[in-house]
Amino acid sequence: MRRITVILLNTLRTLSFEKLLKLAKLAVPHPLFSILGFYATVKSFVVAQKYFPKTNSNNGIGNAFRHALWTGLIMMYGCKISSPKKALSFCKRMTDLHEELFPNEPLEKKMDLHNNQVGMDLFMEMLQGIHRQFFETNFLVDKILEKTKTAKILENLDDDFGNDLVYLKTD
Question: Which of 45, 153, 156, 167 suits 106 as a labelling partner, its CA being 20 to 30 A distant?
Answer without folding.
Answer: 45
